[in-house]
Structure formats: structure tokens, C-alpha cells
Design brief:
This protein has one domain: Uracil-DNA glycosylase-like domain (Uracil-DNA Glycosylase, subunit E), CATH 3.40.470.10. Helices cover 43% and strands 8% of the residues. It has a four-stranded parallel beta sheet with strand order 2-1-3-4, with helices on both faces. The model has no long low-confidence stretch (mean pLDDT 95).
């Protein structure tokens, strides 16, 4: 059994995840010792949990387009690791999905990241990932954090969540596609 499978088994055995394990739901993350990019996002959605494939939804389609990657390369863990802030769908809230569970990333991310020594850049998608990885280095809000993306490179690259619900945000912030996406794509290409 490789180390990532051992971590997966430990996650499934953790009492925090007992309800998921009993339902036969496996933790959704993808990792490899060879990965050079880590993609950290909030938590899998309902559809991704149902299909057991992270980013298997319209948000994933948009993210792959931003990154300039085919599905095959996107899911090739030798290139890109997928490490959400929670590896399970947290459920529905009044508006959108519930946030990732507190303490989950704090417990499991260090174990996974330690086993991926070749990570050059962590792409932090959305507010939860940015809060966890950038901490007090973040700007006053997500928009300003993403706008100031250059100051976090090469270790981190903050992105807005690619959800179709953020189409309005993208229209209000055309600099994102003009300035951030070309840097994201260049960074990805240099690490493949």
C-alpha cells in the first residue's frame, strides 16, 4: 500500500468521517509524489461526490479552461494534485453549499503536502483555501487578494472560485481574465 492510500484509509477510519465511510463515500483528493502543482479549493460538490471525481461539474469545466488543460492532464496526478479543504461534500446550506468542516484541512493537509516534495505552486481557489494558506497575508477581501496575486507568487496563486455563480464577479472584474489567467496558464505550462 502506498503512502497516499494509507492516508486515505486513515481519513476513512477517522471518527470525524464515520458517516461518509458508512455510506461508502471515499475521500475526494488526488495526490502524487511527482505533482508540481497543488490545487486547493473549498470542498467537493454534490455532483462530484456522486461521480467520485473531483471538479466533475461546470465549475471544473471552467477551471480547466482557465488552466488551459485537457481533462486528461487535469486529472493526471503526476502533474496536478487536488487537495480540497474538505474531502467530502459538506451538504446544502440556505444559499449554496455548506463550508468545509473546521479542522479537516488542518489535520490532513500537512500529511499530504509532506509527501509531495515537488510542489512548486499551490493554487488557492476561493476564500476558504486563501484564508487557510495565506492567513494574515490576505488582502481585505477575496477580490483584492486575487487582484494582488503577484505578491504571492511563486508559492501561491489565489483564484476566485470558477462557479457559474461567479459570472457576475467576472464581468465586474475583467482584469481577472486579462491579467491572472495568462499567468496561471504560463505557470501551469512551466510545471508540466
Amino acid at each position: 500500500m502506498n503512502v497516499f492510500e494509507e492516508i486515505k484509509q486513515a481519513i476513512m477510519a477517522d471518527p470525524m468521517n464515520e458517516a461518509f465511510t458508512q455510506r461508502g463515500v471515499e475521500p475526494l483528493f488526488r495526490a502524487s509524489k511527482d505533482a508540481r502543482i497543488a490545487l486547493v479549493s473549498q470542498a467537493p460538490g454534490r455532483k462530484t461526490e456522486e461521480t467520485n471525481l473531483i471538479w466533475n461539474d461546470p465549475s471544473g469545466d471552467r477551471l480547466r479552461k482557465w488552466m488551459g488543460l485537457s481533462r486528461d492532464v487535469f486529472y493526471d496526478t503526476h502533474s496536478v494534485a487536488h487537495v480540497p479543504m474538505d474531502f467530502y461534500y459538506p451538504g446544502k446550506a440556505k444559499s449554496g453549499d455548506k463550508p468545509p468542516r473546521k479542522g479537516f484541512a488542518e489535520k490532513w493537509h500537512p500529511l499530504l503536502m509532506e509527501e509531495m516534495p515537488n510542489i512548486e505552486t499551490i493554487i488557492v481557489v476561493g476564500g476558504y483555501a486563501q484564508k487557510h494558506y495565506l492567513g494574515s497575508r490576505r488582502e481585505k477581501n477575496l477580490t483584492e487578494t486575487v487582484r494582488q496575486f503577484q505578491q504571492y507568487l511563486p508559492d501561491y496563486l489565489p483564484l476566485v472560485h470558477p462557479s457559474p455563480l461567479n459570472t457576475g464577479w467576472m464581468k465586474k472584474n475583467p482584469w481577472f481574465e486579462a491579467e491572472v489567467i495568462p499567468v496561471l496558464q504560463a505557470l501551469i505550462q512551466s510545471n508540466l
